[in-house]
Structure to design on (760 residues):
């Protein structure tokens, strides 16, 4: 009985401090010190939110760099893995279909392109479904198409890829990737199609 | 081989010891000193103790300590259930979430009070801000603090002689929450916000994409929750894809901070133990045993994932690691983490009973995916969950000295205490209960129609998923092979697994601590088996592998091993 009363009091006190006090103070600090990050790293163009630096969005137009496949159609409200086991026949089917689509899309701009030149991240779903990055290799594969469709030189496109490549943190942690949304925004800002 | 990736893993290992050691020394002070943190903080502490009507000078015996833990946990379970059921009518619900179904609510409430954080739901589309923040996130602190408090009490029992009591739960709970978890969470949380994890009370954001499509982006007070979910080996994410989602884990640096936070306190506890029982060399031996198993996990998982699955290898696409890509099995993995950081996280989270993921385990290669499975079956004592990992390790240490005693024909001793039949019974119960329950529940689940309804992938992979699901819940880990669906059956079975998996070993540990506290110290003699050398490390790893491993090997042959042979 004494335990019950003590527990009830402790639960109220703990919920007040750790359930409200802690997140409220953290939010206060965040909104002052890191306003942009704290609100989702949103990207605004001409006063309109066009997306977040941290969420992939679907690109199908040939004038844009494309994202990795997503198991949830790039739904930033319902992230998910594909959860296809390594021996699941659907995995083989999806990979083959993705590779075929890429060959069809990039083939005309890359004579002699074979499946062996497609980097693995281009045909596999990301873990979050909204991976904002593609590998530098996949960006390179798409560069000739972008240059051709947009009437840019390959060098210009490659310079933009380089500029929008997110390196390892402090040059050490993680792996390099190319932020697709930022890269496409850079293309839209710098060229007319 | 991926040299840069390996150097990241080595750096991680060094950082773990460099930060874990001083933290362990601080923790020992927290649980031994009458006033660890100055007069002002002591007065607040005394205020709390007065409010919960406890006298810090009056300690509890193990039964009384355990009873308090149980009442406190059950009451919180009820509160958590109520919040989920009523969230639709409560405040802080900007995205208008409805009541969570009752079986799921029971499962989720059990999941969070037991430090499991198994999730049968996607947080961003099921739970209101109130539920996440004032319900689930509070448990990230509380369930962690309960585990660490129990460990402190057990260690106190080991260190004492001829004593009936092992400490006061309310003192231990308060100190763990306020002197350990809160400051660490604030620091980690601030670092994560800086790296890009949202911390806001605005509802979801809406955007119009470059191609003119409407996009909704889930956000919320995420960082404050993520910080403690890693530190407290909880693992329940804000988002469904957990720490793979860029909003939970945006950069290589945030990944390093989070994966370090996973093992930091479990590693520090080993040094705390060494300090409290005046046996630093023994603690290093225990750390060495843990680290050896951790390193083996990396050494198996990384090459397997880098080599890729047969489907990817046969597809013809380029999976070779190079400067332009991490390569390997990228299915359900993120570009910014690549193979090395996905492996590091996989091994750390499955060793530590954390359960958060930064890649999808379901898509790992058969060999790679066997690593988290085996780690789970080792009973979560390789670092393990906060508190529970080390007191779980004590069961195996007792079994190891018992085996050594049998070999040399002497009464086993541990840290100057004679180990008798009673201690062996507690240790055996603590070590064997969970694997037995896992096998039972998994077996019932695959022979019943309602059990099979949870399985997404057919054949042996479906069996692996089932085994993993019950293994994960019983061991209070919470990670999933993910391809395991929510039904009333799986929710209720899971609830049973999590509650028994938490409290049976906890009470075995408390009983062990209580029994050892009563004993006298016998001076070491020439015949005493040394527990601080390489022989002991090898013996300890061997005992863990034999007891936990052999129980599960037959089941493993039905799942991942068959899968590996088939492809």
């Amino acid at each position: 009985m004494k335990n019950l009363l003590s527990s009830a009091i402790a639960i109220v006190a703990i919920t007040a401090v750790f359930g409200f006090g802690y997140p409220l103070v953290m939010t206060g600090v965040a909104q002052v010190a890191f306003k942009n990050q704290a609100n989702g790293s949103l990207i605004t163009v001409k006063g309109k939110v066009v997306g977040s630096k941290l969420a992939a969005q679907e690109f199908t137009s040939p004038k844009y760099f494309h994202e990795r496949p997503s198991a949830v159609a790039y739904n930033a409200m319902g992230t998910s893995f594909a959860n296809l086991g390594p021996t699941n026949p659907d995995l083989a089917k999806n990979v083959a279909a993705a590779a075929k689509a890429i060959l069809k899309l990039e083939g005309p701009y890359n004579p002699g392109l074979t499946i062996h030149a497609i980097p693995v991240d281009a045909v596999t779903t990301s873990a979050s479904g909204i991976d904002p990055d593609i590998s530098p290799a996949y960006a390179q594969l798409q560069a000739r198409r972008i240059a051709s469709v947009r009437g840019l030189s390959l060098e210009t496109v490659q310079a933009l890829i380089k500029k929008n490549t997110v390196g390892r943190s402090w040059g050490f942690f993680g792996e390099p990737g190319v932020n697709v949304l930022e890269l496409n925004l850079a293309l839209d800002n710098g060229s007319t199609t | 081989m991926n040299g840069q990736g390996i150097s990241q893993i080595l750096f991680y290992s060094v950082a773990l010891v460099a930060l874990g050691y001083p933290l362990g020394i601080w923790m020992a002070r927290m649980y031994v000193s009458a006033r660890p943190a100055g007069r002002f903080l002591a007065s607040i502490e005394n205020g709390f103790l007065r409010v919960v009507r406890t006298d810090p000078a009056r300690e509890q015996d193990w039964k009384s300590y355990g009873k308090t833990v149980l009442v406190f946990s059950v009451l919180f379970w009820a509160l958590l259930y109520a919040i989920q059921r009523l969230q639709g009518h409560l405040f802080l619900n900007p995205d208008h979430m409805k009541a969570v179904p009752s079986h799921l609510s029971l499962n989720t409430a059990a999941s969070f009070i037991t430090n499991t954080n198994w999730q049968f739901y996607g947080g961003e589309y099921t739970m209101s801000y109130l539920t996440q923040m004032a319900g689930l996130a509070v448990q990230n602190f509380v369930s962690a603090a309960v585990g660490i408090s129990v460990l402190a009490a057990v260690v106190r029992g080991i260190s004492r002689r001829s004593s009936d009591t092992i400490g006061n739960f309310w003192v231990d709970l308060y100190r763990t929450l306020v002197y350990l978890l809160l400051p660490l969470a604030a620091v980690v949380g601030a670092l994560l916000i800086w790296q890009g994890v949202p911390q806001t009370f605005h509802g979801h954001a809406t955007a119009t994409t470059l191609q003119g499509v409407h996009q909704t982006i889930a956000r919320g007070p995420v960082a404050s929750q993520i910080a403690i979910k890693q530190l407290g080996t909880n693992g329940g994410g804000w988002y469904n894809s957990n720490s793979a989602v860029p909003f939970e884990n945006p950069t290589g640096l945030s990944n390093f901070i989070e994966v370090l936070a996973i093992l930091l306190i479990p590693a520090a506890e080993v040094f705390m133990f060494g300090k409290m029982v005046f046996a630093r060399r023994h603690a290093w031996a225990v750390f060495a045993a843990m680290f050896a198993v951790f390193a083996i996990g990396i050494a198996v998982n990384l090459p397997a994932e880098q080599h890729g699955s047969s489907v990817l290898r046969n597809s013809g696409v380029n999976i070779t690691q190079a400067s332009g890509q991490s390569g390997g099995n990228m299915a359900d993995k993120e570009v910014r983490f690549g193979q090395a950081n996905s492996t590091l996280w996989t091994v750390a989270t499955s060793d530590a009973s954390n359960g958060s993921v930064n890649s999808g385990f379901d898509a790992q290669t058969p060999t790679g995916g066997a690593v988290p499975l085996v780690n789970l079956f080792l009973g979560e004592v390789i670092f393990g969950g906060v508190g529970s990992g080390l007191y779980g390790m004590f069961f195996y240490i007792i079994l190891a000295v018992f085996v050594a005693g049998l070999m040399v024909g002497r009464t086993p001793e541990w840290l100057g205490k004679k180990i008798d039949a009673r201690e062996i019974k507690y240790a055996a119960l603590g070590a064997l209960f969970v694997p037995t329950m896992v096998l039972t529940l998994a077996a019932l689940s695959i022979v019943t129609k309602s059990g099979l309804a949870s399985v997404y992938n057919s054949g042996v992979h479906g069996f692996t998923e089932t085994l993993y699901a019950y293994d994960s819940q019983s061991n209070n880990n919470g990670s999933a092979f993910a391809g395991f669906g929510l039904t009333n059956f799986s929710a209720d079975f899971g609830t049973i697994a999590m509650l028994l998996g938490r409290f049976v070993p906890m009470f075995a540990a408390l009983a062990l601590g209580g029994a050892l506290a009563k004993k006298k110290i016998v001076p070491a003699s020439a015949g005493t088996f040394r527990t601080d050398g390489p022989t002991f490390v090898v013996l300890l790893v061997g005992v863990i592998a034999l007891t936990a491993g052999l129980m599960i090997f037959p089941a493993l042959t039905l799942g991942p091993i068959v899968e590996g042979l088939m492809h």
User: Anything to note?
Assistant: The first strand of chain A starts at residue 42 and ends at 45. The helical segments of chain A are 2-33, 35-38, 89-106, 136-150, 154-163, 180-190. Residues 112 and 181 of chain A are 29 Å apart (CA to CA). Residues 1-39 of chain A form one domain.
